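The authors assume throughout that readers already know how a fold can be written as discrete tokens. The format is easy to grasp once an entry is in front of the reader. For illustration, here is how one protein appears when written out as sequence plus structure tokens:
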Amino acid sequence: MEAFFTGRKFTRGHQRLADYISKHMDGIPFMVEEDLAQACQVSISTVSRFWGEIGCRNLKDFKQRVKDEVLLSPSRKLQSAFDKVGGGDGAGANVLATADYLRQSADRLEQAAFDAAVALLGDAATVHVYGPGSAESLTALVDFRLTRFGFSVRRLARGGHELFDQLIHVREGDAIVVFGFVSESPEMAVLLDFAKERGCRTLLITDLVVSDMLAKADVQLYAARGQLWEFHSMVAAVAVIETLIVAVGKQREEQALHNGEELHRLRRQYQKWLPKNV
């Protein structure tokens, strides 16, 4: 579905439709234009013109075109990955295929947004990181890297009421990093709203180009993960994070280098007791 909306300049009414459709795709097959008009508080004629803006003839044509692209089960996404592996191009070619995600992410990486993200993290008293599902691996990477530089980092619970137990420790001047892929979850909505209330800034790392989250977060960085019907790759997200963290570390260069030397000293002093295995 992202391909329908990417790079398009919508009117205010069409922006509402794009945002709504991106977050309620499961219900679109059962809706008519009147339903969409009511849900987005726009006229039926606005809905009718919208399909042409995204290259479709009408709502029926849109439904048909996204049927095999969006409403796919995880098994179908896995099948797309299996098909690539079995395509005969070899493992090396499949690895290089992910380079396109890096290119897409680099093309969308605005220097001003990147600099703002560096400043947001560098100025934070504590960095709170949220990433559900496969994005949990990204929260672990942020935690590991920034902690080594001397940052205070806390990983937030993935969902449910456990999140509230951790939010009480968020203070004004902290930063919240949200990995928001696919759609805005209730937890993400809570985090972005709570951050405004508490007086802390938010960094959203996402693969979405149309979402209400983009306006709610203070800074947004894009990381391509593949089309919605594909097995999603974290290659670009990791590259964005690593680039960001190196830039943040340079802001605290003296402390980061000192911590690196201290780490080296400890490893040498206790290597007989705790040999490095990896």
